[in-house]
Amino acid sequence: MSWVVTAPRMSGMDMGRWTDPGSLGFFLTTWVVMLAAMMFPSVAPMVVSYARIHRHRRESGRPAPRGGTAVFVAGYLIAWTIFGVAAYALYASVAALFPNFLSSDPGGRYLAAGVILAAAAYQLTAAKNVALMKCRTPMDFILRRMRSGYGGALRMGVEHGTWCIGCCWALMVALFALGVMNVGWMAVVGAFIAAEKMLPWKRLTNRSVAIALTVIALVVALAPAAMPGPAL
Questions:
Q1: Residue range 14-72, pLDDT digits in tens
Q2: For residue 54, which of 134, 161, 148, 138 has the smallest C-alpha distance?
Q3: To 10 degrees, what angle do helices 106-122 and 202-222 make?
Q4: Contacts of 98 (CB under 8 A, 6+ apart)
């Protein structure tokens, strides 16, 4: 459903690399819908586990308010929304100070390639590995951090969202470089995120994503005409 909503909002907005994200209000609305489309498949195991544990707690007479799962998801989205606002502010500041820096000329192309290559390098860091492990073990995360009430559900959602940002922030920044309004690149980055969180071969998937990002960066820098989308 989120993809159905996202595609019309993106229609006509994609201008290739470093697409202008529009006004803050438009960007935030689009960002939340985009998050639902890209991230919910990979966060689904965590949400399902949380809902199952809450149901079991209610059945056993322990405190677990109805609607807690929705609050948990809201906390997750709040964390990513804060990240989106920070990314938007950084993007807008750079664009205002250096108007041609994020253009489609060779300088902008090489900057995009550098950002994507940095995302590939981040895949191989210890910080990425720790955050990815937190995202891949929903039951361990929930049982160690279980808190009661709506406030507890919100805090847990924000905490999980923060770990998810630690895992995926570089991929999302790479999406800005490729074209944040491009549905095709959204699907590619969303597939990368889902694969490394859900497939059983964590190390192999993580390294495969790093290799794929490296290839994309090289193509953007050396053969931009081969990339899909306008102005690439």
A1: 445 556 677 788 888 888 888 888 888 888 888 998 888 878 877 777 666 778 889 99
A2: 148
A3: 170
A4: none
DSSP H helical ranges for the chain: 2-10, 24-59, 68-97, 106-122, 126-136, 138-145, 149-179, 183-198, 202-222
The pTM of the full predicted model, rounded to 2 decimals, is 0.82
Contacts of 197 (CB under 8 A, 6+ apart): 42, 132, 135, 136, 167
213-227 pLDDT, tens digit per residue, is: 999 999 988 877 666
**Whose structure tokens read 């994503």?**
209
Q: What are phi and psi of 223, to 5 degrees?
A: -140, 60
**Chain length of the chain:** 232
Amino acid at 33: V
Is residue 101 within 8 Å of 107, Cβ to Cβ?
yes
Amino acid at 7: A
Nearest CA-CA partner of 182 in 26, 14, 31? 14
Q: How far is 22 from 97, CA to CA, in rounded Å? A: 17
Q: Is 120 helix (H, G, I), strand (E, B) or coil?
A: helix
The encoded tokens of residue 96 equal 């205002």
Residue 182: CA atoms inside 13 Å, Cβ hemisphere, count? 22
Phi and psi torsions of 230, nearest 5°: -70, 150
